[in-house]
Amino acid sequence: MNERAAESDGQEEEDEAPGLRKIIHVDMDAFFASVEQRDNPDLRGKPVAVGGSSGRGVVAAASYEARAYGVRSAMPSVTARRKCPDLIFCKSRFDVYREVSEQIRAIFHHHTPHVEPLSLDEAYLDVTEDIHGIGSATRIAQEIRRAIRETTQLTASAGVSYNKFLAKLASDQNKPDGICVIRPGEGAAFVQSLPIRRFHGVGPKGAEKMARLGIETGADLAQRDLAWLHRHFGSFGDYLYRAARGVDLRPVRTNRIRKSIGGERTFGEDISAGEALRDTLDRIVDIVWERIEGKQAKGRTVTLKLKFTDFQIITRARSLGQPVTDKARFSAIAHEILADELPLPMPIRLMGLTLSNLEREGEDAPRRRDEAQLSLL
Fold it and tell me: Where on this chain does Mg(2+) bind (predicted)?
């Protein structure tokens, strides 16, 4: 249900049954690109991409004008420019994006302490008991979107429902600058009306496999029992079974700790030459480091993933005494790991790179055991 429909029937309350949560998922609209258009009026209404414009650059974010041409985040810049010759590239300004993100989070915390950020531009909020006693998650979401617009001159979309899975689906429903409310009793029908590709966690390959099995929509998925899903999807079948029924019991976690940040590429043709491998790794470094900066993360373990033409997968990791704090160091470690594996025994079809063993922002580096013991004396 979109915002106009929610207001036209006069219902502001969610009329929730006892025990159900009130969850909001807020997602900024084309955040990085929208900040650039806000700060430079000459860019408004034009196709804009944030990221590197060089041959090895990638798109970190694309404005809605650029998306109309098929430009998407994580797309190589050369591909993006081919799709949209008039595309305007802007260099990333993460200091500005973080500042705006802090303004947005302050608005969230004005209404509830239960905020789970997913990135600089999106978060879950549990407003079952809101600070100001408003009582209606729909009204709170509308107030948050209004405050974001007034404070930042940017737009946000929101999804309102009784669990995280539904709220996140809802925030995508009426983008950009929209709101969607899924009330108790509506979740299963809403989910089952969607194409399976809309389910979070179902990627292109997963959607292709499901299509081969006759699953195109949430309704198709809901017709499969748990045993059938386990047989075809293993433990992921548990998630699919619940998702097809709109069920999600996860709470909003204010101290959510991300385990890793990474990215990978599957190639149209298998590659094995050293130069091609190094060029590909450079592209993946660009993608992953944008994500690392966006999440203000620091980590100590760099892992390279290779999937060979026979589908065998190997991972090679290097753990460091100090966290990786700059892109040059991250890239150098990744290339050192790759160099140790060359020449490859056979071509690869996929390469991935991950930074893990993450520290939370402001967390001190772990001390050696002797230093920890001295502090107790």
Answer: 27, 121
Check: CATH 3.90.180.10 for 189-243?
Answer: no
Taking the CA atoms of 58, 63, 66 and 72 in sequence, report the sign of the dihedral they define: positive
Over the stretch 238-292, which tens digit does the pLDDT of each residue have?
999 999 999 999 999 887 666 789 988 888 788 988 888 999 999 899 989 988 8
Q: What is the 3-state secondary structure (H, E, C) of 129-162?
A: CCCCCCCCHHHHHHHHHHHHHHHHCCCEEEEEEC
122 as an active site residue: the answer is yes
Token pair, residue 155, equals 């737009």
* Strand order from edge to edge, sheet including 122-126: 115-119, 122-126, 23-28, 156-161, 179-181
Q: Taking a C-beta distance cutoff of 8 angstroms, is the pair 183, 37 a contact?
A: no
**Domain 260-359 of CATH type 3.30.1490.100:** yes
Closest by CA to 163, choosing from 267, 268, 19, is 19
Architecture of the domain delimited by 3-28+96-185: 2-Layer Sandwich (3.30)
Identify the CATH class of 31-94. Answer: alpha beta
The model carries a pTM of 0.71
Catalytic pick from 122, 129, 186, 264? Answer: 122
Annotated ligand binding at 27? The verdict is yes
Q: Is 225 exposed, middle or buried (0-12, 13-18, 19+ CB in 10 A)?
A: exposed
What tens digit of pLDDT does each residue of 19-34 get?
A: 689 999 999 999 999 9
> How far is residue 112's CA from residue 152's CA, in Å, rounded to a whole number?
20
